[in-house]
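step 4 of 6: structure.
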Amino acid sequence: MTGGEQAAMAGGVTDASAPVLSLRDAAFSYGGAPAIHGVSVDVHAGEAVALIGPNGSGKSTLLKGLLGLIPVTAGRFEAFGAVRSGLTSRQADAAARLSRRDIGYLPQSDELDPEFPITLEQVVMMGRYRALGFFRWPGRADRAAVTDALVTVGLSHRAKARFGELSGGQQQRGLLARALASGPRLLLLDEPFNGLDQANRDALVETLRLLKTRGVAVIVSTHDLELARDVCDIVLLLNAEQVACGRTADVLTLPNVQAAFGEVGVEVDEHTLVVPGHEGH
Amino acid sequence: MGYFELALIAAVVIGAASGLVGTIVVLRKRVFFAQALTHATFPGAVAAALLGISIPLGAALASIVIVGIMALIGRVRRQGTQVAAGIVLTAGFALGAVLQALHPGVPIEIESFLVGSILSVSTSDVVLASVVLLVTVLALLVFGKELVFQTFDRRGFAAAGYRESPMELLALVLITATVVTSMPAVGAILAIALIAAPAAAARVVAPSPRWMFVIAPVIGAASGIIGVVLSRVADVAAGPTIALVAAGFFLLALLVRRMPRIGWRTGVEAA
Amino acid sequence: MGDILVSWFVEPFSLPFMARALGMLLALAVVAGVVGVIVNLRGLEFISDGLTHAVFPGIAIGFVAGGRDGLFVGAIVTALVAAVVLTLLTRSGVASDAAIAIVLTGFFSVGVLVVSRQTDYAGQLDALLFGRLLTVTDADLWRTVALCAVALVAVAATLPGQLYRAFDARGSEASGFRPLLNDLILTCSIALVVVAASSAVGNLLVLAVLVVPGAVGRLLTRRLWLLFPLGAAATALAAWVGLGIGFGVSVDDGISLPAGATVVMTLVCLYAVVLLGRLGVDRMRDVRVVRGVRDSGDGVGDGVRDSDLGGIRGSAGVNA
């Protein structure tokens, strides 16, 4: 069963023209003052959104909010046609868990135990676990989805390799394959280009383009304005609140970027904007 | 001096030493390591009793072997320190039990090794514990600030031009010596209570790490005395009573912290 | 030699009490192969140790109040309560390692105090701590099997979630697994294993059943699914050999070894043998890798990558 069919069964709207994700003046909070607020954006199937802002501007927070790991505290938030704002915390948890079946999430690169006895293929299969439920073991459809995800990220030749032996960039792409294996309609990527070499970066860009043609909506947080121009249709500039949001060409202007990053560190020549690079964390 | 007075002195000395060294253990997050060490002294003590040599000596020798084995396993890939501690810990108990069974003729109070019997400590036990306490105090007076520095910021410590291994060794020696000498009071199983509880209680209430080194030994000594007296009054085993009193101090410390208007604890928590 | 093999390791098991002991340990071996491997992958050794201590007062109070039947009830109740409390404590982040150690030695102390009020304190404490493997009844055996089965089913039902969480806790949560539910099921299963194993190998030796099988498996293989059968097989082998040795020594040499402790010592010795073998193999492999670098200069990384072997941390070339 695809994610779409599941959403239909759960009562979600599957009208192709309806946005996958819709926020109106939304705020997200860890408890206490909102960590980000004033976010308004519609994301449709096959569209890619770049989240751009300085370190600590709330890019990861927004992604976690969309995932339902932290609550929406104001405004309106709809995902897959289901309203997610104004719920009790119990309702919100249930709704978030349901919607996570349609969301693939690639967290910021993590310290995973390099000695963990697991192959790349098995890691990708974990993307299918949630839908399996108790006592059920992966079947033919699951294995096919894993193979397909590995082909999509261009790592099928490494399927049997132990995960810890892959290079950092390959691990990153492997985790992306895990996010894809569940057949998501929405993909959330948190700084996926951090520390990637050119070859892995190119492979990732190719994968994102391919996913868009398949109708997957993508939201990617990044410092890479070049990437935003190359792949993304929409840019959302963020600095604790939404600074600007719209078509890439309209939003990536000097005043907007300076408003998000402050004057310092923004260097401009005739046609390019440069923002301070990510310093690690 | 009667056995009860001797037990009280032992309780004070061992409690104070455990509190001091426990502060190092807790700050360095080596509680599971210390626990494995305490448990693993058990076969050493059994072997010493069988061979007729001094029990602290046997436990000390066993500790050295055990630290070596844990260091070896901890270095092996895919094993690590937790596995090392777990295996050594359970192996220690099994070995102790087997050793005892191999010599059925020698009467050994196996429980006294496990949960302590402070009412039957000898003068030499107390003297040994006092020496360990004295050495610990001296070592902390001389190297205390380096030890704390290294505990909190290993990279900074190395960057400041110090060598790390002497500090590691010092911590190891102090922990081992205390574990060995605390056996008569609280035994192999409960020693960790007397090491962890006073220090953890001190960490909760102390305004700075330096104060932990003052508060923890006081709590440790108090746990010892109160435990011995209570066990006599209630006619129950002394070791568990001491461990429970120490745990009680920890709970008390948590309660004290939860009370917001405690005046003497100034400006520690902003959040 | 052949005589000893038969008279130590085959014939004794026709005796009912030896067969019961072996049956009990084999049930434990199966469950140790699953739960123990998860304990290893999650790094839950310290929590497991804590649980063994926490269960003790339940065993003691149950024993004092209701004899052997009471022991089981008391132990199960305490084990489940301790497992839930421990899970909530560690999850909320208020509890450090020190706090866990304090709370659980506190529990243990209560157990000792309860037993110490009994008249023949010494002998009973000994039996509770080191087990009484050779005097188990049929009822004991079936209770152990039942407890093991419950623990096994609980972990097997949630195995994908447990593995995902062990590998990547944040990722599993983001994909919709409930961490608290996973942890509760796992710690309760560990607690049930602790109860099941306590009457066999004794409370102090239970940790061996939880820690060693996973550790042996990790030394032997890097394939995930092989860990489980290898862990179970190692435990089963140690159970059989350990019981045989205990029996043989007592018959031939008149020394009665405590059965539980003998089995655990056998298991630890097996671990030691595997560990030394692993180190030896790795050393040879490292030498070969270094030589390979000198001879060919390339292709070394692939050769090592496809191997199924590990080495000492930081040794040459293996991390290529």
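step 5 of 6: annotate
 - Chain C touches chain A through 30 residues (CB under 8 Å).
 - Residues 1-294 of chain C form a domain with the ABC transporter involved in vitamin B12 uptake, BtuC fold (CATH 1.10.3470.10).
step 6 of 6: archive
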